[in-house]
């Protein structure tokens, strides 16, 4: 069959698919009364890993809790984003458990459904590969079983503020604009939307305002037994300019085989540069460009050994955002705090994931590890290794078991009845590169939900008794 020509086909490089900026023009929206859809003790915005854990923790403590999510399911990047890895529950010694509670419950539930597999040799202490579709079931069970009230297909639209308190959050759904009134509000939007909409201070990206590049994850089937490894695939892709923009492939390519089928592979295989995904115009550009990049990848992939029969299974419902806005918190977590394993009296979470910076506007990725080493993997897969601690390459490695996050990094400096959890907590650009992954966001969520349950209505969130908070987290299985 001859190929069909279309009169309005796409030409490269891409252009002209975004609305033209309207300048400073405005319209006036008439004042109106907004119906209240819910009154509760705790309102959580964002149903990703942080949001579910925050809502579940508050509800299990007996608080009336509402969870607002813009997608049709819970789990965020662990479900609709197809990020099919949850990092280890253990410290750098791979013997000491440093994470438990709701993050561990999620993994154990999912494992019991057959949807999670530990990749450690002992089947316990390594990272976990997960089935993102099955994960939807596990998140449902945690939320519904905890007594959380859910509002899907609902998007945060604004907030009303009286001094240092949010008095109502405004949401939009098929039911129109409505309001939620709560004693405590928890921002788990990833982009600090609730804090920003209420006029709270945030920080965007690195000191120059540039954010880590986002990635659209996808799954391919048809992988052969002797398929070229992903590192070699990356090098091959980097050798040829991409058709949609003429640039070099910018990705650090990684992936995980399916927990069900070794011939099916999840890939974090796209990356769009110079994006602020908290800006609607930029976010749209990222989504469109990522899909054109994915089409180019699939075409090239089919020319490589063992990938000749590769086909697209599906792709994430949205591009995976690594970094946008972070709150101005009572305490800003820094790179130095993490890499040196600083101990805080109000520690509420622990982790080992390295400082991981996907370069905002160029190919490549840089890691800094707790053992003192660092490496940059360039677009052509060359590796530049070194030490971030200034020691000689052959010097003994550091023995830091884990890093820690204090409660006050979850407390926005501008509000008394608001907490934040997920990748938008108070941290600098480098620290955010370590704390942003899902196993850590779950811990922040459980801590925020527990703190919301402990907070008195007349008490600023920063004054929650952190010893009681830590005791409650430990009682719930967190090995602080």
Gross CATH architecture of the largest domain: 3-Layer(bba) Sandwich
General form: globular
How many separate domains make up the residues? 2
Low-confidence stretches: none
CATH topology of the largest domain: FAD/NAD(P)-binding domain
The CATH class of the largest domain turns out to be: Alpha Beta
**How many beta-strand elements?**
22
The multimeric state of the shown protein is: single chain
Chain-averaged pLDDT = 97
Explain the layout of strands and helices.
Layout: E1 36-45, H1 49-60, E2 65-68, E3 85-86, H2 101-112, E4 116-118, E5 128-130, H3 132-146, E6 149-151, E7 155-162, E8 165-173, E9 176-187, H4 193-197, E10 202-204, E11 217-221, H5 230-238, E12 254-257, E13 265-268, H6 280-301, E14 311-315, E15 325-327, H7 335-339, E16 347-351, E17 355-358, E18 365-368, E19 373-377, E20 383-387, E21 403-406, E22 418-420, H8 429-435, H9 438-454, H10 466-475
Parallel strand pairs: 1-2, 1-9, 2-6, 9-22
Antiparallel strand pairs: 3-5, 4-5, 7-8, 8-9, 10-15, 11-13, 11-14, 12-13, 16-21, 17-18, 18-19, 19-20
